[in-house]
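User: Show me a protein chain along with its predicted structure.
Assistant: Here is one chain, sequence first, then structure tokens.
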Amino acid sequence: MNEGPLFEYRSRLRAGQVRPDPAQELAVEKLQSLSKAVRGYRPSAGEKGWLARFGLGGKAAVPAGLQWHPGDCEDGNPRQGLYIFGEVGRGKSMLMDLFYEFTNMPGKRRVHFHEFMRDVHAAMHEWRKSGGADPIPALAKQLADNAWLLCLDELQVTDIADAMIVGRLFQHLLDNGVVVVITSNRAPQDLYKDGLQRQRFVPFIELMGQRLDLLELNSERDYRLGRKRGLQVYHFPNGPAAEAELDKSFARLTEGAAARPDQLMVNGRVLDIPRAAIGVARFSFRELCGRPLGPSDYLELASHFHTLVLSGIPLLSPENKDEARRFVTLVDALYEHKVTLICSAAAPPESLYPTGIGAFEFQRTVSRLMEMQADDYITRQHIS
């Protein structure tokens, strides 16, 4: 039967919607094999239910055409999912979307990793309020009952609260029979580098290597840069025309992916992202500079997103000095991490802060805003 992510990928190749890419083709072939393996699968027997799919750990017959690496693990058992990692712009999220959309099964969930962990922490908090001791086994069972195919996009661990629990959480998820597909910019061993109490995070790294098939998407082409090249990123004055240009740029960079609210954890606090999709975040000036945010918030944002779309930058002056100061801090963080800034403003950079106390100091920000419009800056590698 001609169905699944591989057939859709090749259909898009023929239509010229994607370019030939050997690294992507290898990844989508693995995803096709996994798609066959999970079709009709239910984790009624936990991990043993997954083994039984391959005639292991039970007497179940192997489904016809099943070719999902049954001997890959050291213990001879089949890997329970796929961990795809590689540099920004290689197509990881696009491939996950293909897999998710064209794997026909109930009980599947696709979610951004930060959103997933936010839900996990909220559920753990409610569990502890009810007097429960260890929430992780029960939470993992609940997650497994709701979705036995879990697709997690953009795994990145920077918060100690996440680092301390992901190992046990994923151990229980896998033991409950959940099949996991993960995308990340980093190999497992490079996650949470130099983080506090990293030794407690190491079991998660080991678990990924033991239970999932690790695949580096080693494409030579950065598709993100192709979409960025030639972009006009600074639009003025503010108004419907500028807003329409931001809409077009957002759609171009996210390839039409659905934008969803997101959250980042910053020093134990939640930073709300109004709209985000595949590495692009969108804010209004008021949302990002009109509330009491500081350098740590902007640095976390800059490390996580390769592009920021910002609308409605007003004229700046001593009258809105707090907003102006935050904007300066934001631009510094974006510049440091080589984030592309696509924005609408009341005036060109050199006229944004025309007079008054602070106008002279703002000249460094003007210089950076000018440099950040150049193709040479826009196509630089984002520093996550």
